[in-house]
Every structure is written in C-alpha cells, then in structure tokens.
Amino acid sequence: MDQETAKKLLVEGGTFVFLRVPSETQFGIDMQCWNTEEDFRGVKMIPPGLHYVHYSAVSKGTGDIAPRSGFMHYFHKKEFLVKMWDKKTEDLSKEEISDESIQRLKDNLFNLDRHLAPYPYEIWQKWKLLSSQITAELAAKLAPESGMIRASVELLSMTDAERPRGVKSSSSSISQENEKSPTKEDFSEEQIAGHSSAKRAKRITREEKEKSLLPDLKPVPGAAMRFTEIPQDKYPPDATPEEITKHYLDQSYSLELMIAQHNEPLHIIGELQFAYLCFLIGHSLEAFEHWKSLVILICSCDEAIHKYRSVFFHFIRTIEVQIEEMPEDFLADIVMNKNLVYKKLREFFRTAYVSKVDGRLLTMIERFKDNLTDKLQWDFTGLDADDEDERPVVVKLDDGTQ
Question: Pairing relation of β-strands 42-46 and 14-19?
C-alpha cells in the first residue's frame, strides 16, 4: 500500500491480538490465509468495517488440518480486539479476557507491534465488493448464536442428548492456503453426502430405509446457521389454480416473503453475500446450498425486477464478482452439468428480455451476460425461445381433445 494509506491505517486501523497460537496453525482474515510462526500475535492496520477471522488447528505429528472455524466481526476505528487460544480444545478460548489484561497489552503496544502482521491491503477492494451489503447487525442475525462459523458442526442425537454425534475428524480437513480455490475434496464425505440432492433423488428409497435405522440428529445448541428460511409454499393461502400456476412461474411472492423478514430489502443481498463467504472462506456446504437456493429464487422472479430494482441492481454486482471467485471445480459443475444455477441465470436473462427491463439495470444485465459468455463460454443465445425441457407439454385426453 502507499505511504499515505499506511499512515492512515496505523492511526485508524483496528488491531486483532491472538495470544498463545501454536506455530504452523492456519490463520487468516478475509480472503488471505497463512501458517503462523512462533512469534505471531495477530494482525494490525485492519481497515474499519466487517471482517472474517478464521483458523484451523494443525497436528504437530501428522500435519493433519482440522476443519475451519471462524467468526465475523465489525472493526471500528482504532478497535483493539483480543482473543486467546485454548490448547486443550485446539480452538478459540471461551475464557473472558479482563480489561486489565487488555490495557496491559495496549500499554505494551510498542513491543507487541513487531509481532503483528499488517492487514493484506491488496485484498481490501475485492473484499468490500463481496461483503458490501452485510451490516454488523445482519451478520450477527445470520451467524450461529455462538458467533462461531464452522465447516464441521458438531451434532447431537435428538433421542439421546448424552451421546454426541458428528465429532470433528481430521480426515475431513483441508490444507489450503489460497482462499480462491477450495475444492470438493476440502469437505468430508458426510458433508457432501448430506448436501447432494442428486444422490437423494437417485436413491431415495434406499436412503429412507437407512435413515430409519439412524437417530435423528440436530446441531449442538447455538451452533447452527440462522439463514432465512426459503418459503415452502410458493403461493398465498386460498390461491386459485390459476394463481398457483402464476406464482410457480413467477416467484416474486416468495421473494417478498423473505424480504419482509429483513429490516430493509437490500439485506436479502447481504444474506446472499454472507452465505457465499461462509462457503468460500468458511468451507460450509450448508452455506453453499443456501446461496444456491437464493440465486435460484431471485432468478425466478418477474414482477419483483420492477418493484425492487435496487435489489436486482446489487444482485448483478454481487453475483458477478462471486462467480469470478467461485472455485474452478464448482464452476465446471455448473457448466458441464448445466445445473440449476446456469439454467436459472439463463431464465433470468430471458425474463429481463421479455419484461423489457431498461436503463442502467438493463445495461448491467447485458454486460454481465456478455462477460459470462466471454470468460466461461456460457451459451445464452436464443433467449427469446423456450428451452426444450421448458416447452409446454400437450396432453391428449380420453375423448381425443388436447
């Protein structure tokens, strides 16, 4: 960074002190990750705003890396945040740090400073784009009650609360330092199986039988994400058959139900960003599934495009930068299998074409479509015609009519 910015951050930037962290622990902030050295004590010159602090314990003997954990925190100007490592749990300590201890660290800042890594300012602009609509209040609302975002959430049996399930396993860990490219191998088989709708569709009878033999599981209290639930009913109560058909074709009603659960409409984009970052950085497949569901829902709206222009404007800005950061094998899956994300983006572009979206929003949509075609060779031609699998089906009745 230039000297003027460095001076400003030295004065106004936040400081995160992380005490007793073992060497070689994977530690990161936002989209950057390092392996710590013995004299590591934290990060300084953190730009004011929301940040994602994350870490993974590393086994001294085998080098196995534990599933990632972390938390989001809004750093105010000159904020001095102190956390401590717990050697027994190999995790963030739950012990409260006294005001006296914090003050002693502040008083000793001159000696502490050389053990603090500067914030990686080169990622700041990209991070701001990825988190632009996540307020401190929204992050607290969506994160688990414990505040900790974990790739592997410990589970408990609902029928035997004394017996924990889903204990963390180093075999499901990742050993990755580049935050732009987590792969499917970064996740445990249990996580992938638990979030694979394709497998459930193919083997639903067998899996139902297997499920009946297993206890019902639930996350440890306070450990589950608190995403806004996607409405199961796509239409209002007492809707006529004609209205039900309309709401399945245009899911603006469902989107409005979700927006109504937030303090302001743009928070739905903040939730989209939050879920994406919990996947990209936190390695949570639960968050990835929620991100995908939100993309599918937003792309399935017609009337809402005109009613919530600002929401769709920021949706385009957000999804564009998110796809640029998407891990390669997840992108390949979208293209090769033409999954729902690809199909719904195509549907979204067609809706904009048919609905006669105009002005700045249309310009952004056209640019986004062209960029996807140029960079990823995604085919969005023929938007004025129905896809083969979306054409109306003609059914012959018994009396010979159609």
Answer: antiparallel
User: At 270, is the pLDDT very low, low, confident or very high (cuts 50, 70, 90)?
Assistant: very high
Check pLDDT > 90 for residue 199.
Answer: no
Mean pLDDT of the chain: 83
Of the candidates 198, 221, 210, the one whose C-alpha atom is nearest the C-alpha of residue 339 is 198
Q: What is the mean pLDDT of residues 132-143?
A: 97
Which amino acid belongs to residue 266?
A: L
How far apart, in whole angstroms, are the C-alpha atoms of residue 14 and residue 11?
9
| Strands 80-86 and 14-19, sheet pairing | parallel
Residue 147: pLDDT above 80?
yes
CA dist 34 and 21 (Å) reads 13
Q: What is the pLDDT of residue 327?
A: 81
Homologous superfamily of 241-390: Aar2, C-terminal domain-like (1.25.40.550)
The span from the CA of 4 to the CA of 12, in Å, is 12
DSSP SS3 for 83: strand
| CATH topology assigned to domain 3-130 | Substrate Binding Domain Of DNAk; Chain A, domain 1 (2.60.34)
Q: Which residues pair with 91 in a beta bridge?
A: 86
User: Residue 334: its pLDDT value, please?
Assistant: 61
pTM: 0.81
| Helix 340-354 × helix 359-376 angle, to 10° | 140
Specify the range with the lowest mean pLDDT, choosing from 29-33, 125-129, 148-152, 178-182.
178-182
Q: How far does CA 76 lie from the centroid of its chain?
A: 23
Q: How far apart are CA 294 and CA 275, in angstroms?
A: 9
User: Are 138 and 261 contacting, i.e. CB atoms less than 8 angstroms apart?
Assistant: no
In this structure, which amino acid lies at residue 137?
E
